[in-house]
Design goal:
The protein is α+β, with helices and mostly antiparallel strands and 166 residues long. It is 47% helix and 10% strand. It binds zinc ion (ZN).
Amino acid sequence: MTDIKTPEERSRNMAAIKGKDTKPELIVRKYLFSKGLRYRVNNQKLPGSPDIVLRKYKTVVFIDGCFWHGHEDCKYFRLPKSNVNFWRHKIAMNIARDYSNNVDLKLAGWIVIRIWECEIRTKSNRENTLLNLYRRIIGMPNYEKSYAGNIDIGLIAADSDLPYGK
Ligand SMILES: [Zn+2]
């Protein structure tokens, strides 16, 4: 097959690909792979296009950017000084969409794990975050509760009303 893309198209594709592979995501993927887990990435058929899909464990993982997903009290989440209302609204809409995707995924039997970008980006947190993520995925009972609270779907109050995929 011949590659009929123009150089311009090709560089645009490369940029798009680059955008998908944000660094925290790569760190998480590499770690899980090193632990022997196999997964698919950016599955666009599932609600919210989860960053990592582990079918064997019926688990999806999102690595949420602190700005776009509105990580409260996080140093990476600072609203721009101009157009504050615009940004506030935009991020509120993102949070609402995350919530809706969480519900849809859970109803479809998926376990949903969300981790914040800052938990990977900050070196002091990284190791702990990754280890707990791994434990959570494979269903080890003793993952840290505080961490689990963080990555579980805190947005859904009546969590137990929704079915898990186990
Ligand atoms: Zn954060």
